TrEMBL record:
<protein>
    <submittedName>
        <fullName>DUF305 domain-containing protein</fullName>
    </submittedName>
</protein>
<feature type="compositionally biased region" description="Low complexity">
    <location>
        <begin position="234"/>
        <end position="271"/>
    </location>
</feature>
<feature type="domain" description="DUF305">
    <location>
        <begin position="45"/>
        <end position="104"/>
    </location>
</feature>
<dbReference type="InterPro" id="IPR005183">
    <property type="entry name" value="DUF305_CopM-like"/>
</dbReference>
<feature type="domain" description="DUF305">
    <location>
        <begin position="152"/>
        <end position="208"/>
    </location>
</feature>
<dbReference type="InterPro" id="IPR012347">
    <property type="entry name" value="Ferritin-like"/>
</dbReference>
<dbReference type="Pfam" id="PF03713">
    <property type="entry name" value="DUF305"/>
</dbReference>
<feature type="region of interest" description="Disordered">
    <location>
        <begin position="231"/>
        <end position="271"/>
    </location>
</feature>
<keyword id="KW-0732">Signal</keyword>
<feature type="signal peptide">
    <location>
        <begin position="1"/>
        <end position="22"/>
    </location>
</feature>
Length: 271
């Protein structure tokens, strides 16, 4: 059994050391040991509520991206090779992110770690799932590897609907960073990925829309095409119903933040 003072010093070092990563779950390395890590943060009921609200919104939102992409890929009216490659990448990557969010939820339900001097740490996430599951991230496609067109009306509908969908995720990620109650460094880093990836994908989808040979502005998106928006809120910030626009954006009460807040919390390896 480890001496209480040693356990305390080890935990203090975990809290003080900020992760050196730019993003989480960077890649699967064949042959490496599948070691996972538990991330901890100072226990706070307010912080846990912020995390639970975030997971409750982002998980069904990601599930909506899966169903939208699968419906599009099954539609005979699809045409753009580039947009189809993007839809396949969305299915692969966001399905994996749902698994990571499930692990966050499980950690939030786990009992806290109680240390000397009244320090209480809460498990908040599990890192290393890429290696544990042998997950290979699908890279975002580009016009260098796939033809942009021909672009059909169904392509424009999917692109417009997914732009609305992605923008909601970006805004929710920004709202999470802006919340002073947040303590979960893993989710903060996950949001760096969400903001970066989905902003780039929005730009790509706008290129597809602009390549449509007809009048793209005349193609209206039925709000029912945008799945998983019901739970998109964080704290007092709620996402309104989407508007059908040529270059759609969502009006949101959350201020825009170009640089995410520095992540908090540490992690501990389990062998």
């Amino acid at each position: 059994m480890r001496h209480p003072r040693i356990a305390f010093l080890a935990a203090a070092a975990m809290i003080a050391a900020a992760p050196a990563f730019a993003a989480i779950e960077d890649g699967y390395q064949p042959g490496d040991a599948p070691i996972t890590s538990t991330w901890f943060a100072a226990r706070s009921e307010t912080a846990q509520k912020a995390d639970r609200d975030y997971v409750a919104g982002m998980m069904p939102h990601h599930a909506g991206a899966l169903s939208m992409s699968r419906e599009y890929l099954a539609d005979a009216g699809r045409s753009s090779p580039l947009l189809q490659a993007l839809a396949r990448a969305i299915v692969v990557n966001q399905e994996f992110e749902i698994g990571m969010l499930n692990q966050v939820s499980a950690n939030l339900d786990a009992p806290p770690l109680r240390l000397p001097f009244g320090i209480v740490l809460q498990p908040v996430a599990t890192e290393g799932m890429t290696q544990a599951q042998g997950f290979l991230r699908a890279p975002a496609p580009s016009s260098m590897g796939y033809a942009m067109g021909p672009v059909s009306e169904r392509d424009v509908l999917f692109a417009k609907a997914m732009i609305i969908h992605h923008q909601a995720a970006v805004e929710m990620a920004q709202a999470y960073h802006a919340d002073p109650a947040v303590r979960n460094g893993f989710l903060s880093l996950m949001n760096v990925d969400i903001i970066t990836d989905q902003t780039q994908e929005i730009a790509l989808m706008r290129q597809v829309v602009s390549a449509y040979p007809g009048d793209a502005s005349a193609i209206a998106v039925d709000p029912a095409m945008v799945h998983g928006m019901e739970g998109m809120s964080h704290g007092a910030h709620a996402t309104p119903a989407p508007a059908a626009e040529a270059a759609p954006t969502l009006q949101h009460a959350t201020p825009q933040h170009a640089a995410p807040a520095a992540p908090a919390g540490g992690h501990q390896h389990h062998h």
